[in-house]
Write a structure and sequence with these properties.
Strand 4, helix 5 and strand 5 form a beta-alpha-beta unit. Helix 1 packs across helix 3. The protein has 207 residues and is an alpha+beta fold. The protein has one domain: 3-Layer(aba) Sandwich (Aminopeptidase), CATH 3.40.630.30. It is 33% helix and 24% strand. It has six helices and seven strands, in the order E-H-H-H-E-E-H-E-H-E-H-E-E.
């Protein structure tokens, strides 16, 4: 059974360590190529980034993350990570000293930061959207995305941009149903020895 908008709340992620641990584990599921390259499991990934999720400038700063919850509950059902031209992205990623972290920074995070620094003032970027695997196909993603679009519209954002794996047909169908249109196709992040990953860049003019 699908959740209705009246059953859900949509807010930025809080600061509590247990809450951020749950949020980080959901972020791990937003891309099947990027985050497994960083850590082998969602818990290992969460243990790595949670200590930095209250640090301004970190790409996963808690204020950059929107969370769907059920009314009366605290557990996150879905997460959406977003950056816009006002988002602080000044962070020293050398704090993650291991080779896997540095590889992800060089080949993914640095590119996201560069794109954020080049986008127009009225544009926002979604860099991750994921729903708890046990709760998918219950309209949580569409309700969370719809709430986010309305929030951005009220914040004078005119365009929302995101990337989607070409192979992720379900996500692509969702984005198109919410008004996103494909504007380009390119290659995304992949680990050495893996086939090149194709991605679509989509935009939605929300004004």
């Amino acid at each position: 059974m699908a959740f209705s908008a009246s059953e859900l709340t949509f807010n930025r992620a809080g600061k509590g360590a247990e809450h951020l641990q749950q949020v980080a584990q959901l972020i791990y599921g937003t891309d099947e190529h990027i985050y497994p390259a960083w850590r082998d499991t969602d818990k290992e990934f969460a243990d790595l980034i949670v200590p930095w999720m209250c640090a301004k400038g970190f790409i996963f700063f808690h204020r950059n993350i929107y969370v769907a919850r059920r009314y009366g509950h605290t557990n996150p059902l879905g997460v959406l990570v977003s950056l816009d031209a006002r988002t602080n992205v000044k962070f020293d990623y050398s704090v993650f000293e291991d080779k896997r972290s540095q590889f992800v920074f060089k080949n993914y995070l640095s590119k996201v930061v560069a794109e954020r620094q080049s986008i127009p003032e009225d544009t926002a970027m979604i860099i991750g959207l994921c729903v708890d695997p046990l709760l998918r196909n219950k309209s949580i993603a569409s309700e969370l995305l719809g709430s986010y679009i309305e929030r951005m519209r009220n914040n004078n954002i005119s365009t929302i941009r995101l990337d989607c794996l070409v192979e992720n047909t379900k996500a692509l169908k969702l984005y198109k149903s919410m008004g996103f249109e494909i504007i380009s196709k390119s290659y995304g992040f992949n680990r050495p020895g893996e086939p090149e990953v194709e991605i679509y860049t989509l935009e939605n003019n929300i004004r």
